[in-house]
């Protein structure tokens, strides 16, 4: 189905911290079509400043009492002009929202296990993915790192889905102190000892350095790995060639692919991490 | 109501063209936009060969505008003809191919190859890409270069030839004149403005290519002025662009002197902009009793009203 | 923390200058802004004689920018010296006088008169006003003209001479070089971009003067690029401007190569912007351990990171 | 007192029609200093589009129960980007508001009568002026023209002040059909017959053609007349020279004065109407 553009009503705006909030948007058509890992392009503000839409992962797919899709939510982190406006969005306001766009995560089925690796706002695609995995009966773990305990969100949501949690914070206020790739590596190593030949599927989203580390660990331990790449996007539709990621090309050369079409979810071992 | 526009031997059904580099090869939008309903589709700039372009970051937003330094990534003319043109033809798009060369010979060869291909309506000569040294900008910033490339291409094709001019010059109208004298059927203007943004935290340019091209509403008043200046300098049609974001902006360009317009950046913000633009133009024409869209072109009224204009 | 900036023999206490034409004669703001706290005040462009300028409408807003065609209305240099300079001196403003002539002799005479006046810190030669034919733009768009006017003024004054360059040229850095060779102490850039807006309902230009100059955030990326280019071409200081609206923008210009900056349009939006800019620069310097603001100038890091920069 | 810049909270937004609304702004310092006919410069929206502030007449000076000034209101007519945003402003939002600015109306005292002439949104300065005149015991009349009955606002407000109303509408849905300068001329003519030598003070605000007509009528009947000029303003402070009005200069030549400093209220007989 081609993406649709909806003047989506903001049905709620839930602040999670001084920088993070969750916006729920009424957009049944997008909700009905969205798969975990896909994104929407949202226009914040009227007028030409800010000008372009911004990409946001589909965080949750919202449903009514009978299970019919009614909208989506996005997990927003305030870092600049558009995310500032979305942080301050008010209920009743309408936001142009185009989607769903891009390649979703490739799902797995039992007995393969799924390990989600999230850094900061990189949690965004994993609420929907976690739900989908739990629906398929896949055993899932969320490795989730943030700066501090107060920036670890939705933990109960994942617990309720039966997702195991491995947490780190930079300041040590929750979980292990340090980077999330440290427990990830430990887990991969110990698993390789215990059940060699049955690697988990790794899904990663977060800062590029984190994803690169996760992808390289996955390669080292022969685990498949998909990452959700973040690039500045002009159009989200393949029109501008602004969002490219360098991948291994046909003849071993670097090749630029548009992450809005070929991604944002891409195989970690295909990317030329620099 | 007559919305048609003539560019040399070509008649566009309406004045709205998707701007080169802002609409992929057109096929990306085939399921979203009725390609046959557009006046034309200017496809992404093509070299003879494939190119990978610049690394990311390639775009950065600026106030009411954006910089890009794509570096003309592209599949080359042969793959374009084999892989994209058939679908464009099937969708009944009026295809304007934007071509870029490093040398005069490359422009000529591109023009030859495309003239033999089925389904190409016109050639737009990109001699104005600010992002790469080889993208013809050496032609586009020299009057002789502009004249030479246009006349060389003119000799080898019957397709309408439309050089695309750079705004990064002191007097754009002299370039329009050189193009006209060399036999161009129309000129396109403007390409993007050479510009730059620096991340003050890292002190690094925000684009991998250091500099890039500014497009979007920010540049519209400069582009309108350039169209107005060129309208007074040449008689061939002008395809105007630069920051058009609604029907009023498109009409402003036509009143300034553009026979047709291209829309780029604004179609990123709203990919479904095309029918809105067309409706807006139609209702303007109704409201103002304009029977033919061509009757709007260059009708800006600079008449009386300003006695002290010369600066008393 | 050292915020001082040297322009020839002149030391500004900080890099923030109110842009010419955007701060009246300075005295209009004397009760709102501590004039002594600014690095400098560039007063409205002055001719020898009084001028009434263009009729209204003189300004029109555009996306993230504005057009103006004031037409250099002004009280002339003698009334300026008699009526405005004393108050500016009393307020301890560092006064930069922006001068405009129709002929070379007029620039020379203006420079002579102002060199004899008490309380003038520097001369900014406006050879770039896009709004009037006589406003020196004929000098500013020709390399010889630029050289001639700068060297003529240089001969008759000990004040720092700062020609203000137009961005409406193909290669601004060649003009910066001409100015340097002619003995300029610094160059100011950019003046406004020649631009136009049309009211589509009336089909009339929105400005009485038909065309005007574009300023404001819209032009910032182009202006930053021009400062960056000039920094590589000359060794004298650059006073950068064009769309600066907050401390980060000001720092961007300095990193690109400007020793000092001017703020115009943004001070219309926020007349109390000055202490905010200064605080922002101070806290940036603290955060980044920059002891002297001069250490920021031209430090843009275009180093490694972009292997495919030349356009593979 | 120099003008002040206040991040004024919107305390209410009262729509009057599909295009008109009244915004009340918390701004005690401006309210305390404002005189009828002065204006404020308001920034609508964040970001750089729209970019400049926009001038608005001080409509009402708001006071608390004890009469202390608490804020001002503005009468806003939606015609473009900024006025659109102000039409949609929400309670609790803050707007940068600079003022008071410019020259106020020159007041009169009894027995001089005051005739206010308003066209459309040109009503804006007359609520405060009406109040001030009524406080001085001046007999006042409001000549007020609009497109239709539904665009005649605040009639009861003026009636309560004891201001006499003469109304016109373009479509004849209230008052006389036609232009407000028609009954104005009639009134001037009949008054000149009845009480010659005692002309009223005329204050006019509205479309330039209306003000020109009023000013010319005033001259014909030897009545003093002040008009509130409307020009696009860059700064409101005398910095940009964008807002000029052509007046009779020293040697009979046209002279451009800045309407933000010399106006917006200016003597009608000094202006070179074209
Ligand atoms: C597929 C995809 C999904 C995303 N999902 C989410 C999500 O669910 N939640 C969320 O909060 N964010 C998400 N993002 C990131 C989000 O799009 C950016 O945070 C947003 O564009 C910033 O806009 P802004 O106007 O607030 O900041 P800007 O003012 O545009 O930028 C602020 C600063 O951040 C830098 N910057 C902006 N965008 C990017 C970028 N994409 N990459 C690197 N640097 C950048 C700018 O250069 C600038 O220095 C996603 C991005 C992509 C590509
Ligand atoms: C001293 C003064 C007091 C004012 N008081 C009020 C008031 O109390 N209430 C009120 O609603 N308005 C008032 N105005 C007018 C108000 O400032 C304009 O309506 C406003 O600036 C329009 O902004 P915008 O962004 O909505 O429209 P824009 O998008 O800026 O303009 C929309 C259209 O209107 C034209 N336009 C804009 N401003 C003007 C102008 N000043 N003169 C002529 N044409 C213009 C533009 O060219 C454009 O065609 C006053 C103006 C002045 C100078
Ligand atoms: C991302 C991007 C890529 C572009 N690529 C090309 C190109 O390949 N060839 C070309 O002639 N112009 C190219 N342009 C310029 C546009 O066609 C157009 O001239 C310019 O963007 C101004 O129009 P706009 O403001 O509507 O975008 C590109 C512009 C953008 C934003
Ligand atoms: C209303 C207005 C009047 C100006 N008058 C002058 C002038 O008299 N002399 C001059 O050199 N520049 C003049 N300029 C240009 C500014 O000094 C400055 O170069 C330009 O506006 C870019 O800076 P900004 O974007 O910060 O406004 C004027 C600009 C504006 C907006
Ligand atoms: S965002 Fe435009 S091509 Fe991907
Ligand atoms: S509005 Fe700037 S001088 Fe009057």
| Strand-pairing-aware structural class of chain B | alpha/beta
- Overall, the morphology of chain B is globular
Mean pLDDT of chain B comes to 94
CATH class of the largest domain in chain A: Alpha Beta
Please state the overall shape of chain A, judged from the principal axes of the Cα atoms: globular
Tally of discrete structural domains of chain A: 2
Structure commentary:
The complex is a heterotetramer, with 2 copies of chain A (274 residues) and 2 copies of chain B (312 residues). Chain A has 274 residues and is an alpha/beta fold. Helix content of chain A is 21%, strand content 33%. Chain A is built from 6 helices and 16 strands. In chain A, the strands form 3 sheets. Chain A has a 7-stranded antiparallel β-sheet. A 7-stranded mixed β-sheet of chain A has the order 11-10-9-8-12-13-16, sandwiched between helices. The two termini of chain A are 35 Å apart. By secondary structure, chain B is of the alpha/beta class. Chain B has a single domain (5-55, 71-196, 214-296), classed as Aldolase class I (TIM Barrel). In chain B, 32% of the residues lie in helices and 20% in strands. Chain B has helices spanning 76-90, 104-116, 137-140, 143-156, 172-181, 220-233, 247-256, 265-269, 273-287; strands at 5-7, 10-12, 16-18, 40-46, 59-62, 65-68, 95-99, 122-126, 161-164, 187-189, 193-196, 198-199, 204-205, 211-215, 238-241, 260-263. Chain B has an 8-stranded parallel β-sheet with strand order 9-8-7-4-3-16-15-10. In chain B, strands 5-6-14-11 form a 4-stranded antiparallel β-sheet, with no helix packed on it. In chain B, a hairpin with a 2-residue loop joins strand 1 and strand 2. The N and C termini of chain B lie far apart (44 Å). Chains in contact: A-B, A-C, A-D, B-C, B-D, C-D. At the B-C interface, strand 11, strand 13, helix 6 and helix 7 of B face strand 11, strand 13, helix 6 and helix 7 of C. The structure holds flavin-adenine dinucleotide (2 copies), flavin mononucleotide (2 copies) and FE2/S2 (inorganic) cluster (2 copies). One flavin-adenine dinucleotide sits between chains D (39, 50, 54-57, 74-77, 79-83, 121, 124, 230-233, 264) and C (61, 199, 206).
